[in-house]
Amino acid sequence: MGEMEEIVMTSMKKNGQAMVRLDRKKKSDINYSHVHHVAGGPYRGILINKMAENFDSVQEEDARIEFLAYIADRERDRSIQDKWCLRFWFRNGVEGIKKKNMSTEYFQELFNASTLPKNYIGFIKRALVLLQKYRLVTRIELEVQPNSGDMEDEDLPPIMSFTSVYTPAAYTYQFVPQVPISKKDFLTFKVKAAGEAHVALSAVYSDLQYKTHEIVLGAEGNTKSVLREGSLGKILAEAKTINVLSEKHFRYFWISWKNQRIQVGRGAKYGVKTFLDWPVPADKRFNISSLAVSTGRMSKGRWEFADILEEKDLEKSLRRNKIRESLLWLAKKQRMLQTLEDAYPNPVDVNSIFKRSNVKQSDSIQGIVMLKELERRGLIQEIEKGLWIRVQSTGQQVAHEVIIVKDLPTLTGKEQPTIAVITGLYCEKLAVDAMMDDKKTYIKFKTEGGTMGESQVYTVGRIGNYNVVSTKLSRLESGEQGEIAAENTVTRLLGTFNKVDHVFVCGVGGAVPHFSDFDKHIRLGDIVVSMPSEQNCGMYIYCSRVEKISDTAGYSYLTRAWDPRYDTLQKVVHKLQEEVKSNPTGTTPWEKYIEQGQAVLRGQESNFQRPKIWTDKLFYSKPDGTLVQLDHPRPKGLAAKAYVEGKVRVAYGAIASGRIVSKNQELKFDFSHMNGVRCFDHDYEAVIDSLEGNRNDSFLIIRGMCDYVDGRKKEWQPYASLVSAAYMKSVIMAL
């Protein structure tokens, strides 16, 4: 009898994607130092690992199932879909058809309408218990990532089951019975190979000489593709297709035998980009019922074939209702956390949380359960009955005491901060605090008759030789009420810490891109520093009204501009700018601080790693409203040799706000060109005005780019917050 096996679960979050791996392991292969929990009772034989930063590398999966699941939109009251992917690995020797059937059966049983759990934790528990039953499955991975498209219910794509096939560097066909084709007239697939990818469509299983069409992709050194009569038979059609295959990347293809015509084309979309076309004569016609694949002697290959799982087998009502209900609750829980982050440091009452998270009164019990779960995770705290607040947790490497107080402690003269930092988003506050040493956070909250009051949060610490204090605006309210709250926050900050000489406003913004000039272009993850532009002396500009100039194509803008009285911080920025120019290939100080900050923030709920570069998409809006995606401009000449993709660049100029110009492409570019604006942010004019009103004479605004509008899109926000904070630290260290 073999050694006993356990099911080990490991989870991780990476670039906005949630991933869970379930491994069947022998007890002797388990690293118990990574184990967080050993289950008992009905879950005996299941171990839960601590959260991982990365998964160990493993061989390619044997099969996978992809589908879209419903989840609530965090910004608008509607549903969108997330893309879910289940990957399967099997024991050696399991046949292809058995792999396909088993993965489908596991999926159907996991999403059975009568047993589907109503929350994410219950869902994972069921996946673990179910895996104990499927003894031939050795590993399962679940990955959830945002879907880029917004589709209505009836337009949902089918649930796809993917079969993987591996072919060695030998001309030896492998039959693929798990991909049924007898009732089809076309096939789509993708393949990764250096050349000579062979596909055989035949009438008889195991016979590739008689009644067989052989398609060879990337023949003769990956220069041409051919259609043959049988294996290595007579060439019936050919086409020049240089580098049609890739050894490193999957390439999509389709094959059609509809209406007695063999056609082959590139891409995932059937019927386009045809490069082989052969009408089948009457004496060569037969019913295709078998599929086989091979690669040549010079290349191994990996193939993937997609199949549609039948709606009747997947219980259509389950997809539309049970999965949707479960995932909508996951989204509502995330929205609860987002509400408390926006309000922080103010507490929020239960009714307001539920209203902003679309929790109905009839579902209030489930809503309370969600809040308690967030509390158990150490993310929120009930400070009074029915009043909740986001808890600023500590990173993994730096001790950071967070204290809720009724009155702030008195600081001695030497402890008094001389630098203050103002943030608006929760991730901005975390990023700024990650730059500090010896820090301590005080939260002073007040409630008025059980409703939200004006609370204060101050983190006091040290950066270099300077004592620094950071605070956060409560961003739950907007409009006039939000402006008043922001002004009051600044007034209280400068009144409480009256030794402050310099103020930084740090956080995210929306870049003003350039579609053709690399030197003028600003990308996501770059930094914009507020400096007087050549067009005017304002470092920060607010546009309150736009008027069309009669009989011209131009506009006039009603604006207000701010500029600090003293330029101490601006001189330091110039100094840093010159240092970087003198050593363009060297490491900048902010790059070092970004890396250090990521280490400090590793334990936080938000992911402060840089998102994938392909998520930085540049669009141009045509006059008719059509969006066209453009390539980012690239450097030319000597600059191209020193250019590193993803390296943080710094731009200098005015920063602006005003929704009327930031959200209209034509107005945005016209206004930016006229005023030297490099980026926009969202409603910070009240903060800058309050700095001036409180006679602060030295301030600097630093923005990390997270979108191309005004800084409200969330995917890049944590990383953009971090680069902004890292540049702030660079300026302070150079003071």
Summary?
This protein is α+β, with helices and mostly antiparallel strands and about 725 residues long.
CATH hierarchy, class of the largest domain: Alpha Beta
Q: What is the helix tally?
A: 16
Which architecture of the largest domain per CATH?
A: 3-Layer(aba) Sandwich
The average pLDDT is 85
Terminus-to-terminus distance: 71 Å
Arrangement of strands in the largest sheet? 3-4-1-2-7-6-5-8-19-10-15-16-17
What's the SSE blueprint?
Elements (H helix, E strand, L loop, with lengths): L4 E10 L2 E10 L8 E4 L7 E4 L13 E10 L6 E12 L5 H15 L9 H14 L3 E10 L13 E8 L6 E2 L10 E8 L3 E6 L9 E7 H4 L1 E6 L4 E7 L10 E6 L4 E6 L7 E6 L10 E6 L5 E8 L2 H4 L1 H28 L4 E2 H7 L7 H13 L3 E5 L2 E4 L10 E5 L13 E5 L2 H9 L2 E8 L2 E2 L2 E2 L3 E8 L2 E7 L6 H18 L5 E10 L15 E4 L9 E9 L6 E8 L5 H15 L6 H12 L17 E4 L5 E4 L7 H5 L7 E8 L1 H4 L2 H11 L1 E4 L4 H9 L5 E9 L9 H18 L1
Parallel strand pairs: 1-4, 23-25, 24-29, 24-30, 30-38, 31-36, 32-36, 36-37
Antiparallel strand pairs: 1-2, 2-7, 3-4, 5-6, 5-8, 6-7, 8-19, 9-18, 10-15, 10-19, 11-12, 11-18, 12-13, 13-14, 15-16, 16-17, 20-22, 21-22, 25-28, 26-27, 28-29, 30-37, 31-38, 32-33, 34-35
Explain this structure.
25% of the residues lie in helices and 33% in strands. The chain is an alpha+beta fold and 735 residues long. It has three domains: 164-308, Exo-inulinase, domain 1 (Jelly Rolls, Sandwich); 342-496, no CATH class; 503-713 and 726-734, Rossmann fold, CATH 3.40.50. The protein has a 13-stranded mixed beta sheet with strand order 3-4-1-2-7-6-5-8-19-10-15-16-17. It has a six-stranded antiparallel beta sheet with strand order 9-18-11-12-13-14. It has a five-stranded mixed barrel with strand order 30-37-36-31-38, surrounded by four helices. Helix 8 (426-434) packs parallel to helix 16 (717-734).
